[in-house]
């Protein structure tokens, strides 16, 4: 039976969407690989994403398995990166810890959401901050003054102190860490989006949309926001690195994910007690993991920023 005109139209529409997606993906990779800085950052980030996605394939151990015969051991054939004070395999805890950062969000012991804790936190701050920045920059007046002064007051408080206040008040859990990242990151994103909005709202295509009688919401979310996405995406990459560093800091202070979760910050806190005893591995590897992932994200964002500025 020959396909109807409607089915043929849907097939063509689907093929066009797929073609546009792959074309956009190719442009992104072309932009990344045209910069040495972005390329190095991409491979560092890709290593940790792949390690997190396929964590069960990289190690035969679970992050909570305890080998009582080998506590605080150095690298060996059985444990490539060594073990901690309870005999838990450090490589297993690192890759499963990367899952929590980049791949899954443990809402509870039974419920896990796709997307890492750091990614959810930055995504939430992007939604809130972009909304506030768009409204403030486009509407202006008393609304802009009130919103910006409140956000300025938040930015006046040291970031680490804000994290400590929120997490200590709400309790240590992955969801509360996400909320803390979202709240702390919102002012910076709002100010960035507001600045972009103040510039873009003077463009001719925005004036044309207003002349056509489009609603303010249409102008903000269809005309302004898509044309500001470049700087926002690059800033978001940097903020994921900041969020990972914040998670490590909170874990080190005992306000991160509750044990026995393989939280990188808490691994450093526990491992540092055995550095002078001749077992630096439990503190060394998670420290290098946090540093490498944050540096990779910064290199990727800086490289993309340089390339996008070149084409402007």
UniProtKB/TrEMBL annotation:
<dbReference type="InterPro" id="IPR000515">
    <property type="entry name" value="MetI-like"/>
</dbReference>
<dbReference type="Pfam" id="PF00528">
    <property type="entry name" value="BPD_transp_1"/>
</dbReference>
<feature type="transmembrane region" description="Helical">
    <location>
        <begin position="38"/>
        <end position="59"/>
    </location>
</feature>
<comment type="similarity">
    <text>Belongs to the binding-protein-dependent transport system permease family.</text>
</comment>
<dbReference type="InterPro" id="IPR025966">
    <property type="entry name" value="OppC_N"/>
</dbReference>
<feature type="transmembrane region" description="Helical">
    <location>
        <begin position="118"/>
        <end position="138"/>
    </location>
</feature>
<keyword id="KW-0813">Transport</keyword>
<protein>
    <submittedName>
        <fullName>Peptide/nickel transport system permease protein</fullName>
    </submittedName>
</protein>
<dbReference type="GO" id="GO:0055085">
    <property type="term" value="P:transmembrane transport"/>
</dbReference>
<feature type="transmembrane region" description="Helical">
    <location>
        <begin position="174"/>
        <end position="193"/>
    </location>
</feature>
<feature type="transmembrane region" description="Helical">
    <location>
        <begin position="236"/>
        <end position="257"/>
    </location>
</feature>
<dbReference type="GO" id="GO:0005886">
    <property type="term" value="C:plasma membrane"/>
</dbReference>
<feature type="domain" description="ABC transmembrane type-1">
    <location>
        <begin position="111"/>
        <end position="301"/>
    </location>
</feature>
<dbReference type="InterPro" id="IPR035906">
    <property type="entry name" value="MetI-like_sf"/>
</dbReference>
<dbReference type="InterPro" id="IPR050366">
    <property type="entry name" value="BP-dependent_transpt_permease"/>
</dbReference>
<feature type="transmembrane region" description="Helical">
    <location>
        <begin position="150"/>
        <end position="168"/>
    </location>
</feature>
<keyword id="KW-1133">Transmembrane helix</keyword>
<feature type="transmembrane region" description="Helical">
    <location>
        <begin position="282"/>
        <end position="301"/>
    </location>
</feature>
<dbReference type="Pfam" id="PF12911">
    <property type="entry name" value="OppC_N"/>
</dbReference>
<keyword id="KW-0812">Transmembrane</keyword>
<keyword id="KW-0472">Membrane</keyword>
<keyword id="KW-1003">Cell membrane</keyword>
């Amino acid at each position: 039976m020959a396909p109807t005109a409607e089915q043929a139209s849907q097939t063509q529409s689907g093929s066009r969407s797929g073609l546009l997606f792959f074309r956009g993906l190719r442009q992104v990779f072309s932009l990344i690989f045209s910069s040495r800085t972005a390329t190095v950052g991409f491979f560092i980030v890709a290593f940790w994403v792949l390690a997190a996605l396929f964590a069960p394939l990289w190690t035969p151990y679970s992050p909570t398995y305890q080998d009582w015969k080998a506590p605080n051991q150095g690298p060996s054939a059985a444990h490539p990166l060594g073990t901690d004070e309870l005999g838990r395999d450090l490589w297993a805890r690192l890759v499963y810890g990367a899952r929590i950062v980049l791949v899954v969000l443990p809402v509870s012991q039974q419920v896990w959401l796709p997307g890492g804790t750091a990614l959810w936190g930055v995504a939430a701050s992007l939604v809130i901050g972009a909304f506030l920045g768009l409204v403030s920059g486009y509407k202006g007046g008393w609304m802009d003054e009130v919103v910006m002064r409140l956000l300025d007051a938040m930015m006046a408080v040291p970031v680490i102190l804000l994290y400590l206040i929120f997490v200590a008040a709400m309790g240590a859990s992955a969801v509360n860490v996400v909320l803390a990242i979202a709240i702390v990151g919102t002012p910076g994103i709002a100010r960035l989006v507001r600045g972009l909005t103040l510039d873009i709202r003077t463009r001719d295509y925005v004036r044309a949309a207003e002349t056509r009688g489009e609603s303010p919401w249409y102008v903000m979310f269809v005309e302004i926001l898509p044309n500001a996405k470049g700087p926002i995406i690059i800033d978001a990459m940097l903020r994921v690195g900041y969020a990972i560093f914040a998670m490590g800091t909170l874990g080190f202070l005992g306000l991160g994910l509750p044990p026995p979760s393989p939280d990188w910050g808490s691994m450093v806190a526990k491992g540092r007690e055995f550095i002078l005893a001749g077992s630096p591995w439990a503190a060394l590897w998670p420290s290098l993991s946090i540093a490498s992932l944050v540096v990779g994200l910064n290199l990727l964002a800086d490289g993309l920023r340089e390339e996008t500025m070149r084409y402007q």
